[in-house]
Amino acid sequence: MSRRIFGTIAAIVVTVLFVGVLASMLHTAASNPALPLSDASIIREQAAEKDLDPALIAAVIYAETKFDPRPSPAGAQGLMQILPATAYYLAHLSGGTSFTASDLAEPSVNLAYGSYYLRYLLNHYDGNEMLAVAAYNGGLTNVDAWVARANAAGRQLAVEEIPFPETREYVHRVLSAQVAYRAAYPRQLGIQ
Known about the structure:
By secondary structure, the chain is mainly α. It folds into two domains: 1-31; 37-189, Lysozyme. Helices cover 67% and strands 0% of the residues. Helix 2 runs parallel beside helix 5 (107-124), helix 6 (129-138) crosses helix 7 (140-152) and helix 6 packs across helix 8. The longest helix has 29 residues, at 3-31. It is globular. It starts with a helix and ends with a helix. The model is unreliable at 13-31 (pLDDT under 50).
């Protein structure tokens, strides 16, 4: 084989490999440009343990912190933005005995408490994800009052009727992100 033919074949192979790698990178960037995911194994573990949709946990994390666990101005901490007072309450409910607020910085602890709270809220609202997500953001007492008003009027509470604009937008953001996470990360989240 002449050098010229060998050089041409080598150039074609390198070009094909480069285009393949570039296409793969562009596909990944295009399919998940602003949908981060980390700690997927912890999310899967907590979802299985608490009978939750792993995409819902990921969506709450996305809405709370976009997977960047910085403290909030209100004092909420970690990936799922748990307030220390809420965590102490959840520790009491779940039988935890050695919890300290600094534990919330640890992803495994934060996700355990956040997913426990999600399960608690889902149980409280008979599996209604919209109401549970609204309570995660707007507070259980507020959502209970909104539901009671809607029930007194003979209807169910709709997202558009949530009186807190921040909570209304939060519910939309979480439920949309849940769909997106199910589509973008089925393997990583263990969704069949």
